[in-house]
Design brief:
Elements lengths: L6 H4 L12 H8 L4 H5 L5 E4 L1 E3 L9 E12 L8 E7 L2 E7 L4 H7 L5 E9 L7 E4 L3 E4 L9 E4 L8 H14 L9 H7 L4 H9 L12 H28 L7 H9 L7 H15 L5 E6 L5 H14 L3 E5 L3 H17 L4 E4 L5 H13 L4 E4 L13 E6 L7 H8 L6 E6 L5 H7 L4 E5 L10 E6 L3 H13 L3 E5 L7 H19 L3 E4 L5 H13 L4 E4 L12 E6 L7 H8 L10 E6 L5 H12 L3 H11 L25 H17 L6 H13 L1 H4 L7
Parallel strand pairs: 2-3, 5-7, 10-15, 10-16, 11-13, 11-14, 12-13, 14-15, 17-22, 18-20, 18-21, 19-20, 21-22
Antiparallel strand pairs: 1-9, 3-4, 3-6, 4-5, 6-7, 6-8
Helix pairs in contact: 5-7, 7-8, 8-22, 8-23, 9-11, 9-12, 10-11, 11-12, 15-22, 19-21, 20-21
Bound molecules: adenosine-5'-diphosphate (ADP) and magnesium ion.
Length: about 700
Amino acid sequence: MRPENLFPLFAPVSSLRGVGPRVAPLLERVAGPRVRDVLFLAPQGLIHRHRTTVADARHGEVEALEVTIESHHPPGRQGLPWKIRAFDDTGFVNLVYFKGHGPHLQARHPAGARRIVSGRIDRESSWSTLDIVHPDYLAPVERADDVPTFEAVYPATAGLPSRVIRRFAAEALARAPELAEWQDAAWLAKNAWPTWREALQSLHNPGREADLSPAAAHRRRLAFDELLAHQLALGERRHLQRRGGGPTIDAPAGGDRAASALPFSLTGAQRRAVEAIRADIQSGERMSRLLQGDVGSGKTAVALIAMADTAEAGWQAALMAPTELLARQHFEAIEPALSHAGFRCVLLTGRHKGASRSERLEALASGEAHVAVGTHALFQDDVSFRRLGLAVIDEQHRFGVSERLRLQAKGDGTHLLAMSATPIPRTLELTVFGDLDVSRLDEKPPGRTPVETRAVPIARQPDVVARLRAAVGAGAQAFWICPLVAESEAADLAAAESRAAALMRVFGDRVGLVHGRLAPAERDATMARYLSGELSVLVATTVVEVGVDVPAATIMVIEQAERFGLAQLHQLRGRVGRGSAASSCILIYEPPLSEIARTRLDVLRRTDDGFVIAERDLELRGGGDPLGLAQSGFPAYVLADPIAHRDLIAAAADDARMVLARDPELTSPRGQALRSLRALFDWRADGEISSAG
Ligand code: ADP
Ligand code: MG
């Protein structure tokens, strides 16, 4: 499968010269386990070894001087350095060695020898002369080329300095073969990009600061390669999945009957999502669709209709939620409509034991129950369906790929509808969910009053409590969120506990506390008391049950709001304002606010559209892990920067789609070359992609 000429790049890093048992684990930590990973390790900085004279050398800078060795000065007593005195036409310089073998230095650099020396200049340590402590280079003038004018700086680690990594990178580069061009010739010419090998050459040999920029031609080319490899892998997976086929479900009468039992009519966005799903499940191909929409955008109703269609066509559907409480809420929300449409729905969670469990299992196995709603309990081994046609995964990022696959495997070609309340900016959608079709609910159900959002400095927290007291006295319910940010979870918990205790002094036993360390049953119990109205204030770390619907809650207080990301603040705020009563969100912050934090709070005050917010959040961040996407299956790119290179994402996706449409088996000359590209990045083996087929 992997072309032979790539074998050297897939050898372990220990195959590089000088990488022994001590260095290998360090290098693996910095780059990765294979030679390829060292080849793809991008330098982060650049040292310019500026050639100058003793007189002109600048303090604190790295300079290179051409000097003549004058004399060696052994340390007078232990602990003092060995010094070499050298000079040029303009003055003297001391080369200072605290470590190293003096006699050896003397033999290698005898008096009268002419040398290029380079290192950081120190004009302050001794009174009248220039020092270089532990020069980076001391090379004979004939070998001046050994002292690079520009030197790439790599992300180093203790015991593995950048200079050593640089040597390994050079060797990895030497092992990189010339490969047949896999990029489209016209595209390459239009961008004036170098070849793959030239690009790598430039990557490791930057000649100026601009070469380190993601905008440099060689960086863009390498980024595009990586994005293209990823899009190809996603595209192939998608083809395979579709071609596998799925049940043909063409029974909209079922969904229509269920919809007619809902106390509202669908929004335009919900209707469009239903249409897209129906087109998928009627096609005979297998559906893999993601339904994206803010908290409260009405994803459940869309799932309900898809499930009712499925039941009407004689298949079963399963809806899986991450918690007991959510599963129960879903069951209560959809069971009446399903039953009105003539379908039987069962709830199955870890709570069901003994007879109640076996009854439910029996109903699913016999096909007597059309729809199952539940938790992780649904994919356990003893659960079987007579004819599972559709799996719906709510809050999909809370499940692992394997958990979802276990549920889907209970049917044959089971359609997938994944739901997510984390809005992903459109530009990034292709990289996160490139193997899924996406529907967006970008329209809120009517009748919501926008949440009034205010930012308040911490000094005014007592006012917040006083107003909360008045509101609670009038029957309101509030969330109070404490951030998880301290060095230790224990410290965060202590903070949340003391906040709860402080609020209890004001509100008595109408305060509850939920956090991640709580046993699920305890958490559910507290949430249930809050839902029932028994509790007025729910203090929570950020774990407030995703998606839980508490229509009565109208106040959201977020402590240390400046510590949260924009997307996260938006998610938290989304938990209020779900009923028709006016709601408010109070962001308590600790001044002074950074410019970015101020902008973030501002954005939040101005809009409550999750997609707009996600897009703004992306702009506000320089790079790294935008929106904490790593958790939602965001691929770990090494050469592409999803923000700096976002204009390339769509181009790579288009290119991959075009290639796969024309040459699905990759047999054309370009297809053959693309196989090398794919093998080089090895997405199948290394990257968990959001939807495995
Ligand atoms: P999500 O799962 O997307 O967070 P839900 O499906 O739980 O949102 O819906 C949130 C609330 O909005 C529910 O109470 C639901 O009954 C209501 N709802 C859904 N669709 C509509 C609609 N088209 N019109 C009015 N209310 C709706
Ligand atoms: Mg939901």
